[in-house]
Amino acid sequence: MALGSGLTALVTSAVLGVGAAAGTSLEPPGPPALQGRSSASGVQASWAWPLDPEPHVERGFDPPDQPWGAGHRGVDLASAVGQQVRSPESGTVTWAGVLAGRGVVVVTHPGGLRSTFEPVTATVPVGAAVARGGPVGAVTALPGHCAPATCLHWGVLRGRQYLDPLAFVGRAPIVLLPLG
């Protein structure tokens, strides 16, 4: 198993319930309450970027054909070591810790969507409420699959399904569907 796949499995385990704050459910209660433009996937684009200024997308979302298969379950955003990571929408920090040697922060948003960020050092504790644009961590110097460059990996989940984070900021690829 490739390092990226193993790390994805560990992060997935964490965001699906391992290490969650007491009394915190990571399963979504229903559809997200978002406002704004709707993408082809039905996601409403109204979130803020987790980095400021708006970053260059180094690698886009590439979901696997099978849940266990290889793919890229988020996006890689160009960043700098120490750059502040912000919550793209209001929520609660439901996990913060180290997995496979990388710092990971998970923010659960209203409607049950979860944002995952790595590699980061958390700057707020588990259980903390964060506002849209509020700081949750800082990018660390760990080399990753963007090496030698530094990048932030941002994932978004609804239940166990990974979604394209760019759809939430209005930058998802346009998909043309057949008529009728």
Report on the structure:
7% of the residues lie in helices and 32% in strands. It has one helix at residues 3-15; strands at 37-38, 44-45, 57-59, 75-78, 84-86, 91-99, 102-108, 113-118, 120-122, 129-130, 135-139, 151-158, 161-163. Strands 3, 4, 6, 7, 8, 10, 12 and 13 form an 8-stranded antiparallel beta sheet that branches. Strands 5-11-9 form a 3-stranded antiparallel beta sheet, with no helix packed on it. Strand 6 and strand 7 (102-108) form a beta hairpin. The model is unreliable at 1-42 (pLDDT under 50).
Q: Into which percent range does the helicity of residues fall?
A: under 10%
- The dominant shape is globular
Strand-pairing-aware structural class: mainly beta
Biggest sheet layout: 8 strands, antiparallel
In total, the number of strands is 13
Q: Write down the overall mean pLDDT.
A: 78
Quick synopsis:
With 180 residues, the protein is mainly beta.
Q: Mind sketching the topology for me?
A:
Elements: H1 3-15, E1 37-38, E2 44-45, E3 57-59, E4 75-78, E5 84-86, E6 91-99, E7 102-108, E8 113-118, E9 120-122, E10 129-130, E11 135-139, E12 151-158, E13 161-163
Antiparallel strand pairs: 1-2, 3-4, 4-12, 5-11, 6-7, 6-10, 7-8, 8-12, 9-11, 12-13
